[in-house]
Structures are given as C-alpha cells and as structure tokens.
Hints:
Structural class: alpha/beta
Mean pLDDT: 91
Number of helices: 8
Number of strands: 6
CATH topology: Rossmann fold
Helix content: 25-40%
Order of helices and strands: EHEHEHEHHEHEHH
Strand content: 15-25%
Amino acid sequence: MERLARLGIFGGTFDPPHLGHLILAAEALDQLNLEQVLWVLTPEPPHKQGQNRQPMEDRLEMLHIAISEYPQFLLSRVDIERPPPHYAVDTVRLLARQHPQAELVYLIGGDSLHDLPEWHKPVELVQAASYLGVMRRPNDDADLPTLEQRIPGLSRKILRIDAPLLEISSSEIRQRIAAGRPFRHYIPVGVYFLIRERRLYGYQNG
Length: 206
C-alpha cells in the first residue's frame, strides 16, 4: 500500500525566527521522512497573552525570508486567517481538512512534551495529529507512563528527532538586540538585514 504524504506542522510566534528553528525543521524533514514542513505563524498564542511582540506583519516577513531558500518549507496562513484564540488542536484540525490525504506530524520540543497535559485539550490534540515529532534534548526523558495516564494514546504517537543542541531562543535574541550585543550569527542573514533596516527590537547599532 502506498504511504500517505507526511507533512510536518511547526507552529510558533517566530519573534524572530532563528537558526534553531531551521535546524529543528530540517532534521524533522530528514529523520521523519516528511514531504514538507508547514510553518504556522501564530499571531497571539493563548499561553503568551500580554507579552510584547513584534507586529505580525514584521514577523510574517521575517519568517518568509527565513524559509524562502528551502523549497520544502512552506508558510501556512491557517492561524493568520482565523480569529483567536489560536489553539494547537484547532490548527491541526483545520490543516487536516486542508490536507485530507496526508499524515500530519506536529513538531514540538522535548520541554513541550513535559508540559503537554497543561495544553488546551491535549487528548484531542494527540487524537487529531497522526504523530508528534519531539526533538530530543539532554536529560529531558519524559515520564511517558505518567503522561500516558493523562493523555491516553500519547506513547504510540511520538516520533523522536535527534538534533544538535543549540541554546538559542527568540527571547535571548531580542534581549541581545536591545542591549546592542552581537546577534548576527543566531539568525538567517536576510532576517538580520531586515531587523537592521527597520530597527526592530530596539536595534540601535549602525
């Protein structure tokens, strides 16, 4: 029987998108035999309400620049084109309707696996996704038996991704920019030039 097309779903605020994001997506593409990775920019994540964020238009342009060199990375507007709240379970369900013949792999970090029971409707999320692609991190071995009790069916949905450990976060990059510290090599070159041109995140140098 012919295998269904397998698509990765990579959601986030991408404020800004950085090399860690690209590495995770590239390793998921390779290790999980994905046809494509759908990058889902979330305008207002429910768990990050009240935080200052760069306007969505700037984040959208930065993300477009970051993934433009990779033909298997596609920008999905599924969250942009619907009203909040933007919960992952609803995102997966909508993408399942858009790609009825595909297996959908929702990509998360190992830390998110620990927190999954606290997400909105985690049982329904696991049911909606074909798999969860989880990036391994040192010392992040989740207590799967306990998680399985709270989210039945989770264990058989997990696909592990081995990726280099890079201590890069969007929040640290924002802090570096605002403080005038080096940040160029944490992000794609096109994103760097856009930040510099528009003086995003309090950029003052140059």
